[in-house]
Amino acid sequence: MIRKTPLFFLIVLLMLAFPLTAYAAASSFITNGTTSSKEVALTFDDGSDGTNIGRILSILDRENTTATFFLTGRGAENHPSSIRSIVDAGHEIANHSYSHPDFTTLSATEMKNELSRTEDTIRSTTGQALSPLFRAPFGAVNDQVLQVVGDAGYPYTIHWDIDTLDWKGLSTTEVYNRIMNNVEAGSIILMHTGAGASGTPGAIERVIPELKRQGYSFTTVSRILGLEQSSTHTVQAGDTLYSLAKRYGTTVEALTSANGITDVTNIQIGEVLTIPSTTGGGSSDGDGYTVKRGDTLYSIARTYGVSVSAIVEANNILNPALIRVGQQLKIPDASSSRYTVKPGDNMYRIALNHGVTLAELARANSISSPYLIHPGQVLIIPN
Questions:
Q1: Which CATH number does the domain 28-224 belong to among 3.40.50.1010, 3.20.20.370, 3.40.1110.10, 3.40.50.10490?
Q2: Which of 5, 128, 143, 168 is most buried when burial is the number of CB atoms within 10 A of its CB?
Q3: Do the record's keywords include Signal (predicted)?
Q4: Which top CATH class is 283-336?
């Protein structure tokens, strides 16, 4: 047994009195996908009016094409039914701020308020979360913006490599040409839903079939970045097999076959569907669990005999309070003995959460100073 010297207890007291906060990594600034496949992502920024949402959704539906919509809180308040239509059609949604300010002119507190107000508004409107994707209003970012956005739980700030400039009132032909003259594998194409982008609906009506003819396919930002790896989906109010097939890049026939469904109109809220893999899927380590109404990370951890921190680590959860019904969680092996440092962690809390002493944790990782840990660092948890 290790003798605990006065210095050891002094360190513990200092850490309790002045816990060192480890900050999250800055949000990654992304302009295009890294895929070599001929895939592109159509993206639409929604502002306060959303005039063209209906026409855009109609065209995407007719062409069986999925897209990503970056939503504002104020837009959701002004046209909530249109926002719900986006989700009901199976498209991806992401955070575009509440009131569309230039984030480079805001304080950290103001930025976080813009993000959280939008998240709350969209969640109450659609039941869905917006993280992990954010797009800065005007595309305006700097190092401080990326750090604050990352701290707020949005690890990916999505820019674009094709700016259609549709908001300037460009004609259908001009928007079409800006896309067709610059498109390549992995392109992220910026468009808008507002009345000022009057040429956009007509342009995508021509762009989609032409790019398909050239061998391109359309997907969401998450999929083009390799972030979407869910293999199951819990049916929610408003879901249809058609909207789910579009959301996950598969077909109604593949869904019915994978789930033994004989009546495509008869799926039940709460039913867990297997999503057939189209991209090879993700890791199969550990067990999977679909979050049900009333679940907490604590109750799930207790059921599976693992720690809350182990589930948080296995699923890269930034805020343990924010799990949602239908979310697919990976349940780690109860014998897991590694932990990745998260924002806000200090060694005392990690040791306490895993039932070991600070000295044991420091010795297992050859750490000379308990202050020197950082987000992303993988620690060995002694048995």
A1: 3.20.20.370
A2: 128
A3: yes
A4: alpha beta
